[in-house]
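Minutes, structural biology subgroup

Action item carried over from last meeting: produce the structure token record for Sodium-dependent bicarbonate transport family permease (Persicimonas caeni). EB confirmed the sequence was re-checked against the source entry. Recorded below for completeness.
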Amino acid sequence: MDFGLIADNLLNPPILFFLLGCLAAFSRSDLTIPQQLSKSLALYLLLSIGMHGGYELSKSGITADIALALGAAMLMAIVVPIYSFWILRIRFDLYNAAALAAAYGSISAVTFITGVSFLNQLDVAFGGHMVAAMALMESPAIIIGVLLVRMGAGKDSDEPLDWSELLREAFLNGSVFLLVGSLVIGFITGEPGWKAMEPLTGDLFKGVLAFFLLDMGLVAARHMGDLKKAGLFLVGFAIGMALLNAAIGIGLARLLGFGAGDALLFTLLTASASYIAVPAAMRLSVPEANPSFYIAASLAVTFPFNIIVGIPLYYQVIDFFWR
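Output recorded by EB:
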């Protein structure tokens, strides 16, 4: 293994700011990021990556290969929560297993964005359609998670499910809406639109990502105490699923002939877990599940593992097989 790439990733300013946030939380510093500012930074990142994806998609057009990649993304979004659920049922009840499975079937946009920054640093090209793949993968797991609960509870559950509210939360939540909208705007306006927006959506991107990851470090470190409630099984699951899903993602990307940049982003989508959209939906649809389990596992274990170790590790594997 080339540890130089992992070391280079650790010395990447956004990753260092993430670790700084963790250090601030562990040392009980009074450093805080106002919630509204953190939300604004997240919205900026989604807008930027959506515009960039739309611009790149306008250059490449929608081809059969792109349609195949989007189909693979949808397939993984449906399959991952199903096999995750059966693994989790070894130690968790129906509700917590379904909520955790939904989190791991969905994706982390910040992990994806950090992967984009990593590829830009290495000057490795990737397709704008991967942003569309990210948008497609965020929501299906929410539906799968609720269906798993309904099928498992069977006739014991007499409470009617508000499907309209669930579907609204799954497909019209703010992050998905902004991401898809920015992608469409970037696609429609093409290069003139990208050039006009580039001072905002291009030049500032890495600095804002570093600031956002500082906040993510604070939040992730504060959730690590919740892991004590679930024990080592959940920690092992959070890392094991990242590695298993990454291996499946790399294999599928190789089988379908993805480029190296697209393969890494696809792998990160399959290996990441949601800590924003899914928790919001699960609190609404599966209130019996304990939020500290699915938030702590995805945010305090899988997320830092992927951005610190996973990204350079997955890329090394891809680079080896793609040569």
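Discussion: The CA atoms of residues 90 and 103 lie 17 Å apart.
Next step: EB to file the record with the rest of the batch.
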